[in-house]
Amino acid sequence: MINVGFIINFDPKKWLGGYNLIINLINSLLIIRNNKIRPILIVHNKFDTKDVKKLKIKILKTNLFENQGFYKKVINKLLIIIFGKSYIYEDYLKKNKIHAISHSPVFLGTRSTIKSFAWIPDFQFYHYPNNFSFKNRIIKRINIFLTGCCSTKIILSSKSAKNDLRKISAKAYKKSVINPFVFQRIEKKKIISLNNLKKKYGLSKKFIYLPNQYFVHKNHFVVLKSLKHILEKNKNTKIIIVSTGLNSDHRNKNHFKDIESFIQKHSLKKNYIYLGIVPYDDMMSLIYHSIAIINPSKFEGWSSSVEQAKSMGKKILLSDIDVHKEQNPNRGIFFKEDNFIQLSKIIENIWNSFDKKTEKKKFKSSYKLNQKNFENYALDFQKIIIKK
């Protein structure tokens, strides 16, 4: 049995996608037969373990891997490059009988006896450099190069990301492998009833769901413009779009204020409802009860919301970016990423054609396929870890 450490050294509220992915991957490893990996969660001392205790795995608390300041990071990485490993990291991991770490920003060096499998979600800085400062872009390129030198393998989630990496670093590209993540669908008994969601969030019976963080590249404005266009034609429309996610982007601190101003200016408040950050089971229940999911993003590494919606056989409205096409949901409907008129027509059509019985059938029939894909995801990851 190989003990694999998963390090969470970040605030889950600020990176829900990364947090949910790690927890989901651990769950996948716990359900497969002939499991050769024992997952261990490594968190910082102030981390609230209430939600992760249900995983029934070993949880270690330490500030050794905490998200350090810039200069500490530089010094630590230089020591790993010079000596080929971090003696502090090595001693701690050996003491806790950890044979490998995965999905972590920490690399261990060329002389380390412990394997390290970095996960790089995407290369947005390469496609949208204006979303990042010059310093941040340089740091990202250096980190990719060092990860290529000092990690065992680099895990990517899509062919699209691998194509990007080939252009950025040949050394890192040679070490890269693809392991597209699959989300396990929520158990029927955990789905919160629509009545309870209505009481908690003041929702209507019928809504379209947009579960994206409010980062600039997530492209919420195309949805808002579509809604505005619909209301201009029919001010009495009952179309409701429900949105959740973190409402700040450190790269553009005014982004959410701009969105709020647009909603206010065009009187969209009754039709566009923002709920903030919601618990995971609430989010999955919102997906279940929605008539469709929207992901209008201009860029993704491998979309969590698409995989979560796929797990339930949902209808998904998607910007026609390469990675969304690669994810290829059975009930995907694509639109040009900035074409709000095209999107408005799609929204009106799915709203008017919604059939509750059909949705229940799609949910029921999606179970076996999701289970198979979820197990294959874990098995493919296991092969990456144990391969010599």
List the helices and strands and how they pair.
Elements: E1 2-8, H1 16-31, E2 37-43, E3 58-61, H2 70-83, H3 87-95, E4 100-102, E5 115-119, H4 124-127, H5 134-150, E6 153-156, H6 159-168, H7 170-174, E7 176-178, H8 194-201, E8 208-210, H9 220-233, E9 241-243, H10 255-265, E10 272-274, H11 280-289, E11 292-295, H12 304-310, E12 316-319, H13 322-327, E13 332-335, H14 340-353, H15 356-365, H16 367-386
Parallel strand pairs: 1-2, 1-4, 2-3, 4-5, 5-6, 6-7, 8-9, 8-11, 9-10, 11-12, 12-13
List keywords for this structure.
16 helices; Rossmann fold; alpha/beta; seven-stranded parallel β-sheet; 2 domains; six-stranded parallel β-sheet; 13 strands; single chain; globular; 45% helix
Quick structural gist:
By secondary structure, the chain is α/β, with parallel strands linked by helices. The protein contains 16 helices and 13 strands.
CATH architecture annotation of the largest domain: 3-Layer(aba) Sandwich
Bin the strand percentage.
Answer: 5-15%
Count structural domains.
Answer: 2
Compressed to H and E, one letter per element, the order equals: EHEEHHEEHHEHHEHEHEHEHEHEHEHHH
The tally of strands reads 13
Would you kindly provide a written description of the structure presented here, covering whatever features stand out?
The protein is of the alpha/beta class and 388 residues long. The chain folds into two domains: 2-183 and 372-386, Glycogen Phosphorylase B (Rossmann fold), CATH 3.40.50.2000; 188-365, 3-Layer(aba) Sandwich (Rossmann fold). It is 45% helix and 14% strand. The protein is built from 16 helices and 13 strands. The protein has helices at 16-31, 70-83, 87-95, 124-127, 134-150, 159-168, 170-174, 194-201, 220-233, 255-265, 280-289, 304-310, 322-327, 340-353, 356-365, 367-386, and strands spanning 2-8, 37-43, 58-61, 100-102, 115-119, 153-156, 176-178, 208-210, 241-243, 272-274, 292-295, 316-319, 332-335. The strands form two sheets. Strands 3-2-1-4-5-6-7 form a seven-stranded parallel sheet, sandwiched between helices. Strand 1, helix 1 and strand 2 form a beta-alpha-beta unit. Helix 9 (220-233) packs across helix 14. The longest helix is centred in the C-terminal third of the chain and has 20 residues, at 367-386. It starts with a strand and ends with a helix. The model has no long low-confidence stretch (mean pLDDT 91).
